[in-house]
Amino acid sequence: MGLHHLIAKLKKWIKILEAKTKLLSSSFLLEERCRFLSVFSISTADVELPGEFLMPKSNIHSHYYIRIAQFMPRVELVQKHNMSARRLFIRANNGKIYPYLVVNDACLSDSRREERVLQLLRILNIYFEKRKESSKRHLLFTVPRVVAVSPQMRLIQDSPSVVTLKDVMKTHYVKKGIDEDTAVSLYYERLAAVQARGEQSTHQVLRDIFKEIQSTIVPEVVLKEWAQRTYPGAADYWTFRKQFTTQLTMLQFAEFTLHLSRLSPEMLQIIRASGRLNVGYYKFEIDDNKGELDANRPVPFRLTPNISELISPVGIGGVLTSSMVAAARCLVDPKFSVDSILRAILRDEMISWHKK
């Protein structure tokens, strides 16, 4: 059996399994699996919300922590972070409901490294709030609460309104009646045709294939059209686009200055309710041989054609540039002593690398 036939059969079985998965129940009652949590209340025990102690607080509010009032009765089964997870809803003593994902991370060996990056971003948020130029632009990282319950299990703060760029593309494919693997299949077909002629896959050939896919299957306006459908009002769309731009600026700034792992499109998560951006699996980019931060990359960060079309040239030259300059000026302020924070966190990173 050839490789193409094997791939075709695998794609067929993936569709069959996805169809069968959609027929399964998408939720269950908490009482059926864990009666103790279903009857838990604030009178049972005084328990803080997961990850509450991770959030830095000022001296004025240091004594106040949000506590668990009860667990909501229904648990949802969702597909997040390329795996199946359970979504718990926790009602706090302030009346708000906080959703959390129960994720089995037994296959992820770098989860502790990811948590170190998240803790660094939480600390940097304090500095951005204190500086006038960054505070008035609302330049803050969106950092979810991540709590390790066991070596294999984690609780991750979630939002039901989160969508990924993959979800946006699926919506586009369904609207056009195109199979979601068409772009990948076309790429390998064109690449196989080039190799069959005995030619080399040069940068020009790859660029031509990319332009063909872009013009026929994935146009540059997919993300922009999705945003216009999601936010039909002019004020809502303008607010979302500005929030999206400032959030993307912070992620790109952190990726370049802190030598984080490259921001791939599949890592980006959009919170529709607020326009904020969340990134999964950020960690320090460390050379496995030297144990040093890897700064060898062709460009500091990337703007895909769809993201550039949404932000527009005015946004790139205006909001994105000014926000990045304001963030950089904040961190070079000597009174914040950012280098001492970096030494403490990178020390743990170096110890982790040395143990490997």
TrEMBL record:
InterPro entries cross-referenced by the UniProt entry: DDR_Repair_Kinase (IPR050517), Kinase-like_dom_sf (IPR011009), PI3/4_kinase_cat_dom (IPR000403)
Gene Ontology cellular component list: NuA4 histone acetyltransferase complex; nucleus; SAGA complex
Taxonomic superkingdom: Eukaryota
BP GO terms, sorted: DNA repair; regulation of DNA-templated transcription
A matching Pfam family: PI3_PI4_kinase
PANTHER family membership: ATAXIA TELANGIECTASIA MUTATED ATM -RELATED (PTHR11139), TRANSFORMATION_TRANSCRIPTION DOMAIN-ASSOCIATED PROTEIN (PTHR11139:SF1)
Name of the protein this chain belongs to: Transformation transcription domain-associated
Native source organism of the sequence: Paramuricea clavata
